[in-house]
Specification:
The chain is mostly helical and 453 residues long. It folds into 3 domains: 221 residues, Zincin-like; 160 residues, Alpha Horseshoe (Serine Threonine Protein Phosphatase 5, Tetratricopeptide repeat); 58 residues, no CATH class. Helix content is 70%, strand content 3%. Helix 10 packs parallel to helix 12 and helix 11 runs antiparallel to helix 12.
Length: 453
């Protein structure tokens, strides 16, 4: 594979501004964590003059401490950041900071700055190519290698001012909401040591958000002027934070760390939650049910504890028993697409009379709310195939493939569906649309087909 010099520079600068795609990383989808983060994020977006419905919020399964805005109005938070945070205010502070990058137009100005920053790098590469052609291979290679550093240095001159304005804006957003900005300050102070580390050893977040003592001092002064530094989070906010971290640690960290953080003699809600999840991850159904049933005794209307019980039963080979807990989760949180998908999987696997239709209906309800949910489409394909509706199942498979960028599979299955679907039907038109959009003859589709090959 080869690409032009200009594309190489573009890729280099994209990495610098952290406008990376997340296709190579897995996203975490979780109803509870998403709802918690949305409750914290949406008010910040509103005071910043943004429409929460137009701003995406994504959790990336990555232990690296990082957060960034990319691909338009989309805030990305790494699981490593959410686990490392010491208070809910630290997460809110980071979200407020990233919000300014959208509301203050930094995503646009950074693209322009990246273009300007690339010019010396292009000159350096050009000189390097000439040096190599003249026989000075080592000198030419050194010039080309230095091109990234030239671009980065020029780019960071521009971003320092933006980082300072994002800090100030974050404090003002939190002040307007009556929330303490102490978390933003403590987050910066906790990682002040990052400034003395080499670029390669820093967390990703502090490569694109360079700290400096004067920046921290200014942020602290602005925060103190709000008079809200000593304001504590509400009990509910603290509980949400504790449960979110317990859930992430339970699912993502090794068993030894779970029991180190949440020992068996810790009977708190968060500790039991983490241990229940860790037990499920270890295929210990007895341990999971012991912990989750104790939680349900105390919090019988918590949809997420019912969801966890249903998930544990399903994943450990007892799908028929998992249906009722998943139905309970929907009773307490009606219509949530992720809970609908869980319920649908269980009833489809149970396959009693009427279950396939019930599963199909639940999946279609979920898809109405999340039309790009690839997993929902794949489960719908299973439900339809089990009902011997092959052409509809093939269309659902094409939809699933399309939404994860597998254009080859989408093209093939849309073609199969098109052969059997009634001519002129809405399903046939959709199959034709997918086939046209994923056509390998279109130059813009080359990358999708190349990825598949």
């Amino acid at each position: 594979m080869s690409f032009s010099l200009t594309k190489f520079i573009g890729a280099t600068l994209t990495a610098i501004v952290m406008a990376m795609t997340v296709s190579a990383q897995s996203l975490i989808r979780d109803a509870e964590i998403e709802n918690t983060l949305r409750q914290w994020t949406d008010p910040i977006l509103e005071v910043a003059g943004l429409n929460p419905d137009e701003v995406g919020l994504h959790i990336i399964n990555d232990p690296e401490l990082n957060a960034f805005v990319a691909n338009g109005q989309n805030i990305h938070l790494h699981s490593g950041l959410l686990i490392a945070a010491e208070t809910p205010g630290q997460i809110k502070g980071v979200i407020a900071h990233e919000t300014c990058h959208i509301a203050c137009g930094h995503t646009i100005s950074r693209a322009r700055a990246a273009e300007v920053a690339s010019r010396p790098a292009l000159v350096s590469i050009g000189l390097g190519v000439l040096a190599i052609a003249a026989g000075a291979g080592d000198a030419g290679a050194a010039l080309i290698a230095s091109s990234q550093q030239f671009a980065a240095l020029n780019f960071f001159v521009h971003t320092r001012a933006e980082e300072a304005s994002a800090d100030a804006a974050a404090v003002s957003y939190l002040e307007e909401l009556g929330w303490s900005p102490a978390g933003l300050v403590s987050f910066f102070e906790k990682y002040r040591y990052q400034e003395v580390l080499s670029e390669a050893r820093r967390f990703q977040y502090f490569r694109s958000h360079p700290l400096a003592s004067n920046r921290i001092r200014t942020t602290r002064q602005l925060a103190q002027e709000t008079g809200l530094m000593d304001k504590e989070p509400t009990p509910e906010t603290q509980r949400q934070f504790d449960l979110m971290q317990a859930k992430l640690v339970g699912f993502l960290e090794p068993l030894a760390r779970v029991y180190q953080e949440y020992p068996r003699d810790d009977n708190s809600e968060a500790a039991r939650y983490a241990r229940a999840i860790a037990s499920m991850q270890s295929a210990d159904l007895t341990g999971t049910l012991k912990e989750v049933d104790s939680l349900l005794e105390e919090y019988p209307d918590n949809p997420y504890y019912w969801e966890l019980k249903g998930q544990a039963l399903f994943e450990m080979g007892r799908p028929a028993e998992s249906v009722d807990p998943h139905a309970k989760s929907l009773e307490y949180l009606p219509g949530h697409p992720l809970l609908l998908i869980n319920y649908a999987r269980s009833v489809i696997a149970r396959a009693d009379e009427g279950d396939l239709k019930a599963g199909e209906e639940a999946l279609r309800d979920a898809i109405i709310k999340e039309p790009d949910n690839s997993f929902a489409w794949s489960q719908l394909a299973i439900a339809l195939q089990k009902q011997d509706r092959t052409e509809e199942a093939e269309l659902a498979t094409a939809e699933s493939a399309f939404h994860i960028g597998d254009y080859q599979r989408a093209y093939i299955f849309a073609g199969r569906a098109l052969q059997d679907l009634p001519t002129g039907s809405s399903e046939a038109r959709r199959a034709a649309d997918i086939r046209n959009v994923t056509d390998p003859a279109l130059p813009e589709n080359e990358k999708y087909w190349r990825r598949r090959r």
